[in-house]
Amino acid sequence: MAKWTPKHEAPEPLEGPVVATITGGTILWFVLFLVQVPFYGWFADRDLTWWVWTCLAGAGLGLIGIWYVRRRDAALKRAAASPPPHGDTA
């Protein structure tokens, strides 16, 4: 089991424009869906319609992701702006 024990500390997570990144990915998935829709017959003939629906699922999950990261960012900002609870010394 010693070979699975980490030898180094994990690095700090990268911070960046999370909402913009998720929004960009969502737009990309939706554009890919729109590009493939006119060729649905071609995909259906080759039993590859899962490509089309995967793009739509990516866009839908991206919308959920946008909602989530916006709420998360707002909660983090509220937590940073509020004073610490009474009796907390940290």
Automatic annotation (TrEMBL):
Lineage of the organism: Bacteria, Bacillati, Actinomycetota, Actinomycetes, Kitasatosporales
Pfam families in UniProt: DUF2530 (PF10745)
UniProt KW keywords: Membrane, Transmembrane, Transmembrane helix
InterPro entries to which the protein is assigned, alphabetical: DUF2530 (IPR019681)
Keyword Transmembrane annotated: yes
Protein name: DUF2530 domain-containing protein
Transmembrane segments: 21-44, 50-69
Domain of life: Bacteria
